[in-house]
Specification:
The complex is a heterodimer. Helices cover about 70% and strands about 5% of the residues of chain A. By secondary structure, chain A is mainly alpha-helical. Chain A has a single domain, classed as Formate dehydrogenase/DMSO reductase domain (Formate dehydrogenase/DMSO reductase fold), CATH 1.20.1630.10. Chain A has a two-stranded antiparallel ribbon with strand order 1-2. In chain A, strand 1 and strand 2 form a beta hairpin. Chain B starts with 6 loop residues before the first strand and ends with a strand. In chain B, helix 3 packs across helix 10 and helix 7 crosses helix 8. Chain B has one domain. Chain B has a three-stranded antiparallel beta sheet. The chains are: A mainly alpha, B mainly alpha. Strand 2 of chain A pairs antiparallel with strand 3 of chain B.
């Protein structure tokens, strides 16, 4: 609000459609580079399907390792979209406007990526279909519908469908603008995609109502998705450290922490790559950082509860696990990195306005958060399985194989490539939101002070 | 098109600053009416009955289980009065303009936290030490608590200290938020109110630096209060409920307790707003906008109550261990099953179905009805939790240190002294707030004036809207 730029509609269209109507020089080499990594990742998957899960570090008793960690991580990132777009829309936060599209996009692509990991983790992914189609009636083999593992695909599928719809509904006015400014096959494509959008009052009313309704509908789905992911672990009393009631909100808040941080990373990249200084301004990073401080503090409180209750029961195995997580090599190193990057370095820095308004600092601190949040998931999943249990005689420690690291790298390249491809065809900052913001904000003079003002509905 | 060209002036029917000052700080502030006086005398009588209840509770004391209703009443008071100031803090930090007229009503809840801290003293005599079994079972045997290697009476000491700190910070916050109003009373009031206004205004004349200081102090005390409220809920709920039940291990419970505190705080504020309109003559200051906004928050916290409850429940339900099953039986399906279902309907189902309708949220009658139902429901919820916890006294000492509740206690029913306590102590809390409102305006005058300064009703094309300034 404080750094508002007055822009006419021509300038908004010209600047925000620059990436769609022309191709920046850096775009093609970057996409090609990412494509190489993506193809390399698919090759690794092929090798794994061919040779079996033995090429990974997974072995008794650690059956869930880097793949499941990365699955949880990307589901977490997907929480950015709804947090930024739906919640801020419902609370009428004016600063949300340039951020929403990128956040919604991150939701869709990170969910698509997350879905890959349980599939490849299954080793023979085609067998996943047996979950959907019970195949052996005679032996009574059915998927256990009471298991959160079965709820997961339904929750994520619903979330993906809803998020895609949410993204598409918000895209319609911009597609109408693109249709009117393109020719040839692109015009045909945008004509079909814009669903006859003309911007008449009825269409605007429907689009607004749809946005609000979808926001409200998506909120419970958003909460349920990561809660169900957390119950994959929490309903399992057999694994030390997993059977904890706090897991559902802990996972959801952690997901918001990492998701909003990912949005910050993306916003900084968008500003640098496309030069959108008039739209993505330091005030937006400031607002996101304030939001992150609140979320990070809530996350810290839940982390504290999770750790303290591990020791609370005074049970020897649980205490031993916590000791291993925090004090035994190499977990102690990972734990320190997790805590420093997830909270101790970025959050105190965000308390300073100069840091909040410094885009480079926000970029690097947001990356730190996601390093920490990935490690958090790893530290939840692996140590609990690794600790030696009584009466288990086959034992080996989990070593992440190069193939798994390769697939982790693939997932980042995959998401970035999808983003860049999207940016070629659709605007990454919503045109209509930007124009609406220009209309709904103004400056008012109060005494000797000029301050920004917004127009609000009267009840 | 420039926005300014789309905006035209609209009629402004808000009360003028002179009118507001006269009503809230000057001659308009009349002495308590007969109805209010009678109500305050009634509350005073009920408070005395509450103290009688405490005395007789001590005399007829058969053990820890007799103090469950007392603990539940204190927990309920902490839930309501401790949570209310959050309504003044959280939206204000987010620069929500609608909260200004209700900030005072909400912040006054903090006054009662001091009373809760004092009322906790009798409970401490009945609260077991960490090493209560050491005489029989050996020095190294301690019951489970979050005070792992602390001294025997760590929970007693820390809980009192934490509650006192909460009270101190809360009262400081309520006071700081009222300083400009005391200055207005000094300048426009008469008699004893003017004298007190002069003392409490502490030389506030509204200089720019004084406003800067005020803003900073409100920010600091508000943030501190929020942190202290979380911490208080954390320790109180763990020490006075969870740790008393062998085998109850629920890392989400402190947050469940906190969320219901927010829910109750909002409900209390809504009822306060309704009362201020109904009997306080504040119709021009608090109305639809406040009810609508508070209603949305109450709906959100109602849904969160269910989410937190269910997140715990499903883990216990699927866990199926002996301790998980015993915990579910104690709190849900066992001696308090009917209470549980009543709570479930009063705290979640009914308010949810009332508040889900925008027309109801946007009315002045809908939110108060839901708020009243929620407060009753949360009282029963506190009984379900605290009475169950305080009645889980193991017969076998060795079992007290194990991780399983072996002997399921029977349903505890309140006796006449419990009823005295349950009626009297909340009445004392309410009375203390009403006494304070004799001096402090129920609606903050300076917030109203500031709101009038930065908002303006205007016409935007054909619509009547509000232009809201956003100061840095």
């Amino acid at each position: 609000m404080q750094q508002r730029r007055i822009l006419d509609e021509f300038t908004v269209n010209h600047e925000l459609l620059r990436g769609n109507l022309a191709t920046p020089k850096w775009w093609l080499p970057t996409v090609l580079g990412l494509l190489v990594v993506v193809l390399f990742g698919f090759t690794l998957m092929g090798i794994m399907f061919n040779r079996g899960l033995g090429v990974t570090g997974l072995s008794r008793p650690v059956y869930w390792g880097l793949f499941i960690t990365t699955f949880v991580f990307w589901v977490g990132i997907s929480h950015a979209g709804i947090m930024i777009s739906a919640i801020l829309r419902l609370t009428q936060a004016e600063w949300r406007r340039p951020v929403t599209r990128a956040a919604e996009l991150l939701t869709v692509f990170s969910l698509l990526t997350a879905l890959f990991f349980p599939l490849i983790h299954a080793g023979r992914p085609w067998r996943i279909f047996y979950w959907i189609t019970p195949y052996d009636f005679a032996r009574g083999i059915f998927p256990n519908a009471r298991s959160p593992l079965v709820w997961d695909p339904f929750a994520i599928g619903t979330y993906l469908t809803g998020s895609t719809l949410f993204l598409y509904v918000a895209l319609l006015p911009d597609l109408g603008v693109l249709r009117d400014r393109t020719t040839g096959w692109k015009r045909s494509f945008y004509t079909v995609a814009s669903l006859g959008w003309r911007g008449n009052p009825r269409q605007w009313r429907l689009q607004t109502v749809a946005g609000i309704l979808l926001s409200a509908l998506m909120l419970p789905i958003f909460v349920s998705v990561h809660s169900i992911v957390s119950w994959d672990f929490a309903v399992t009393p057999a694994v030390e450290g997993w059977h904890s009631t706090v897991f559902a909100p802990y996972f959801v808040v952690g997901a918001v922490h990492s998701g909003v941080s990912a949005v910050v990373t993306m916003m900084a990249l968008m500003r640098w790559l496309w030069g959108w200084d008039n739209y993505i301004r330091p005030e937006h990073f400031d607002a996101l950082a304030r939001l992150l401080i609140v979320v990070a503090c809530a996350w810290l409180a839940l982390t504290f509860a999770e750790l303290i209750f591990g020791v609370y029961s005074l049970e020897a195995p649980e205490r031993a696990l916590r000791e291993m997580q925090m004090f035994e090599w190499p977990w102690n190193l990972l734990f320190i990195i997790f805590f420093l990057t997830g909270f101790a370095i970025p959050v105190p820095l965000w308390f300073f306005k100069r840091v909040r308004n410094n885009i480079a600092m926000m970029f690097w601190t947001s990356i730190l958060v996601n390093i920490g949040m990935w490690l958090e998931r790893f530290l939840i999943i692996v140590p609990g399985l690794s600790r030696k249990q009584p009466f288990v005689f086959t034992w080996d420690s989990y070593q992440v194989s190069p193939l798994e690291w390769g697939l982790l790298l693939w997932s980042f390249a995959w998401v970035m490539m999808l983003m860049l491809l999207f940016s070629k065809f659709f605007p990454l900052i919503p045109l209509f939101e930007t124009k609406e913001s220009q209309v709904f904000t103004t400056d008012v003079q109060i005494g000797r002070v000029t301050m920004p003002a917004v127009i609000r509905e009267l009840d | 098109m420039a926005t300014t060209s789309l905006i035209t002036d609209a009629p402004d029917d808000r009360p003028s600053n002179i009118e507001s000052t006269a009503l809230l700080a000057g001659e308009g502030r009349t002495a308590a009416g007969t109805g209010l006086k009678r109500f305050m005398w009634l509350l005073a009588a009920l408070s005395v009955i509450g103290f009688v209840g405490i005395v007789f509770r001590f005399i007829n004391d058969d053990g820890r289980q007799d103090w469950g209703f007392y603990a539940a009443t204190l927990a309920w008071m902490l839930t309501i009065f401790g949570g209310a100031p959050m309504v003044a803090i959280a939206p204000a930090l987010a620069k929500a303009n609608w909260v200004r007229p209700v900030a005072r009503i909400a912040s006054l809840g903090a006054i009662v936290t001091a009373i809760i801290a004092l009322l906790m003293i009798p409970l401490l005599f009945k609260f077991p030490a960490l090493t209560q079994f050491s005489e029989v079972l050996g020095d190294d045997v301690r019951r489970r608590s979050i005070w792992f290697d602390s001294r025997d009476y760590a929970p007693h000491f820390w809980n009192v200290l934490i509650l006192l700190t909460l009270a101190l910070v809360g009262i400081a916050m309520a006071y700081v938020m009222a300083i400009p109003d005391f200055a207005a009373i000094r300048d426009h009031g008469t008699g004893w109110k003017q004298r007190w206004g002069k003392k409490l205004a502490r030389g506030f004349y509204g200089r720019p630096q004084q406003w800067e200081w005020l803003k900073m102090r409100i920010g600091i005390t508000g943030a501190l209060y929020f942190a202290m409220l979380l911490y208080t809920n954390f320790t109180f709920s763990l020490d006075f409920a969870v740790s008393l039940v062998p085998g109850w291990k629920d890392s989400l419970f402190p947050f469940y307790h906190t969320i219901s505190t927010f829910q109750a705080g909002i409900a209390f504020t809504i009822i306060g707003v309704w009362a201020a309109r109904r009997w306080g003559g504040m119709n021009k200051y608090v109305g639809h906008e406040q009810m609508w906004s508070l209603g949305k928050f109450m709906l959100a916290t109602t849904l969160l109550w269910f989410y937190f409850f269910y997140s715990s429940f499903i883990v216990f339900w699927y866990g199926r261990s002996e301790s998980d099953s015993a915990t579910i039986k104690l709190l849900v399906s066992g001696p308090y099953i009917y209470l549980f279902w009543t709570v479930f309907f009063l705290v979640f189902i009914i308010p949810w179905w009332i508040m889900i309708w925008n027309k109801v949220r946007d009315s002045v009658w809908g939110p108060p009805i839901a708020a009243f139902i929620i407060l009753i429901g949360l009282f029963l919820d506190r009984i379900r939790i605290y009475v169950a916890s305080w009645s889980a006294v193991p017969d076998d000492l060795e079992l007290a240190t194990t991780s399983i509740l072996q002997d399921m206690p029977d349903t505890m029913w309140p006796d006449v002294f419990d009823v005295f306590i349950m009626v009297g102590l909340p009445a004392l809390g309410l009375l203390s707030i009403l006494l304070v409102t004799r001096l402090v305006p129920l609606v903050s005058l300076w917030e109203i004036q500031q709101s009038r300064l930065i908002t303006k009703p205007v016409r935007f094309l054909r619509s009547h809207v509000q232009l809201v300034g956003k100061p840095d």
